[in-house]
Design goal:
This protein is mainly beta. The protein has one domain: YVTN repeat-like/Quinoprotein amine dehydrogenase (Methylamine Dehydrogenase, Chain H, 7 Propeller). 3% of the residues lie in helices and 47% in strands. It is built from 2 helices and 32 strands. The longest helix has 11 residues. GO terms for molecular function: 6-phosphogluconolactonase activity. Pfam families: Lactonase.
């Protein structure tokens, strides 16, 4: 029976069991995550939400990141994890430990473990990105045992550089929105552990910071980025309402995610409110994007052609969210918030050709806005699980037998909550070199 963890727009995370034959919900168990001293309501802005879950790469530990908007620093809470090693074990259990502490920044929205182990100390580093104040915090965990405490953590906190010195501020008049300059929304280590990419949507840049591959830490919290890539696109926001929101809130092109091609020669950048993906050359050793200044090699829409070229889409807001490379395909999710009119809630899948070009897209239509999803393969069957928000409130399971086929819906598990993050419960083990780990995202029977 497939098992998944989910995080949601409240102070809870969930363990979900679905029927392997039809994808329907068998059981969901929700776990409270972090303290809520101010009794904040769920969801942003200004509320409480568990936005990301990270599965430790070598020990049975899950780190949950809970945000309080701009009210308090975000919270890191740890859960020990048993069972589910093959993702079909029905006896998966989570045990909340007493291990919890502040992440030093506000609105923790993403995190990633370093791909290498510090052999001298036996630790692996977790980088946590904060959307509201441009901080990236680095926590160090043992690779062989559950930690005793989070004392003296984070080990280091990096404050992102200002592209234009003296511009540090909060956009818009409502600080609960947390649109700060700088801002960090995504972190990704190089496979060698020699640098880290940090996506700053509010300054419209991708920073490359040098990292000590032995420790997973930047050399200094005051170190300047090795490279700063300025993101640009002429693609407009889709529809008059999206354009109006962007102008009122002072939004730029808002890069959100970055992913690397299977051969390591190209990167894909997604733009949240412009609904496009760009392809660039990259120096895989240094992390410099577009090192030869050749410019954007390709720009494609994340949406269906008919929606992009629709003269009137009504009162709706369209945004892309997650970006993932799996095997030789690129996946991007779309979130259409529609009051009336048209929008697209989907996962768009592209084949990656030689030269990094994207081709042969097909659309996987989903029941609601897709913030996150996971992709896996067993034998020849690829499985795509999408976590949706209202009105879907579900995990939807799709499968295909080869990359040349389109995904087909096989089942829906109505979990009753908006899903922020969803990933398999199966734990991954490694000895010395750690591949990029899988990020995880009241009890009731279905």
């Amino acid at each position: 029976m497939p098992n998944y963890f989910i995080s949601q727009d409240a102070n809870k995370m969930g363990h979900v069991q679905v029927n392997g034959a039809n994808g329907s919900l068998e059981r969901i168990t929700l776990y409270p995550v972090a303290p809520n001293p101010d009794n904040l309501p769920p969801k942003a802005p200004g509320g409480i939400s568990t936005q990301w879950l990270v599965h430790h790469p070598t020990i049975p530990l899950i780190c949950a990141l809970t945000s309080y908007g701009n009210k308090h620093p975000a919270q890191l809470t740890c859960f020990s994890f048993e069972g589910g090693g093959d993702n079909t074990n029905n006896n998966v259990t989570l045990t909340k430990t007493s291990l919890e502490g502040a992440t030093a920044g506000r609105e923790a929205v993403h995190a990633a473990f370093s791909p290498t182990v510090d052999s001298s100390s036996g630790t692996v580093t977790l980088a946590v990105a904060h959307h509201n104040d441009g901080l990236v915090s680095f926590f160090q965990f043992s690779t062989s045992k559950l930690p005793d405490s989070l004392m003296d953590q984070p080990a280091l906190t990096l404050e992102l550089a200002e592209v234009e010195p003296g511009t540090q501020k909060t956009l818009a008049t409502n600080r609960d929105l947390g649109l700060s300059i700088p801002s960090s929304h995504f972190v990704q280590y190089a496979s060698t552990g020699e640098y880290i990419w940090i996506v700053d949507p509010n300054q419209s840049v991708v920073f490359t910071y040098a990292v000590d591959p032995k420790t997973g830490l930047p050399a200094s919290p005051t170190e300047k980025p090795t490279f700063t890539f300025q993101c640009k696109t002429d693609a407009p926001s889709l529809g008059w309402f999206s354009g109006l929101v962007g102008k009122v809130m002072g939004l730029g092109c808002r890069p959100r995610r970055i992913a690397t091609s299977p051969n390591g020669e190209y990167v894909f950048l997604s733009y949240e409110t412009r609904n496009v993906i760009q392809v660039y050359h990259v120096n895989a050793k240094t992390g410099q994007i577009d090192p030869d200044n050749k410019g954007c090699l390709q720009e494609v829409s994340t949406l269906e052609y008919t929606l992009v070229h629709q003269p009137l889409i009504g009162f709706s807001f369209q945004a892309s969210a997650e970006l993932v490379v799996f095997q030789n395909s690129l996946y991007v999710s779309n979130q259409g918030v529609v009051l009336f009119g048209r929008g697209e809630n989907s996962i768009r899948v592209y084949g990656i050709l030689d030269g990094g070009r994207l081709a042969n897209p097909h659309t996987v239509n989903c029941a609601g806005p897709v913030r996150h999803f996971c992709v896996s393969q067993e034998g020849t069957v690829e499985t795509l699980v999408a976590g949706t928000g209202k009105p879907g409130q579900a995990l939807q399971t799709f499968t295909r037998s080869s990359p040349s086929e389109k995904y087909q819906l096989v089942g829906t598990a109505d979990v009753g909550v908006n899903v922020f993050c969803v990933l398999p419960a199966a734990a991954k083990k490694s000895d010395t070199s750690i591949a990029q780990p899988e990020l995880m995202g009241d009890s009731s029977d279905a």
